[in-house]
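Treating backbone geometry as a discrete language has practical consequences that deserve illustration. Part of our work consisted of pairing the sequence of a single chain with a tokenised description of its backbone. What the numbers capture is local backbone geometry rather than side-chain detail. For completeness, the protein is quoted in full, as a sequence line and a line of structure tokens:
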Amino acid sequence: MKNIKILLLVLTLSALNFSCLVDDEDEGGLQGIENSAYLIGFAKKTENESYFVDEGAIVKNYPVSILGGNAGNPTTSDVAVTFTVDPSSTAVAGNEYNLTTSSFVIPAGANYGTIPVTINTGGLDPDAPTFLKLNLTSSTGSVISDLNDSLTINFVGCQSEVDTFTYAVTTIRISDGGLMNSQLENITMESVNVFRTATVGPYGPGAAGGSIGGTEGFTFNDVCGEITVESQNLVSLYSNQVFGSGSVDPVTGDIEITYTITFGSGDRVFTSTYVKQ
């Protein structure tokens, strides 16, 4: 019996050591509020709306979702929600956008409702982005998520200079200057002004840590030369988060991105430099 207990202890410790790469999901979050009031919030925290020619007025609908609550049962009555424009917004009503309402309804039994925003594509600045930030302020029969209570809509009139070029990439670990990667790679376009790299930190084909499965690299947004790496799962597979920022050189088109990968043993920060070939 004593030997069996020791074996179980060894197996448990081995599992804990492996979790430094594949962190367990937080046991709180939505699961902790399943039996409480409905929780609502924006489905995404940011949206990029990119138009490089005047296509007239286009209506976009941004979803606000039922995120959890009441043991997952559907709502039995409408959820009325109000919202406001955050004063930090740089986009001007009547120029980049128009709003015709400050409230909307998530219908009974539905998973989400939408906020309609009219985008005036001819009013976007071709040299610099502006943004509209919307804040959820009240809702009936539900609670607004503190983590999902706002949406930032970036209006982008300038087309990204990043393209599907081959780049010479160099990635270093900030803590000690260790070289994690040095090779030729391709950056691919996923959608307008949204791109994906071939490696992330020490992981990927030819990198120090090698391939670890999933979708290689990480996704980033380029808004008029400013790079944003929105928080995402490591290679779209592990619970470790990848997030950061960077910029595109307006003359050379070279890219530098500094980003963090979270680990249970301590976060690690990397800088990747991409020189266009």
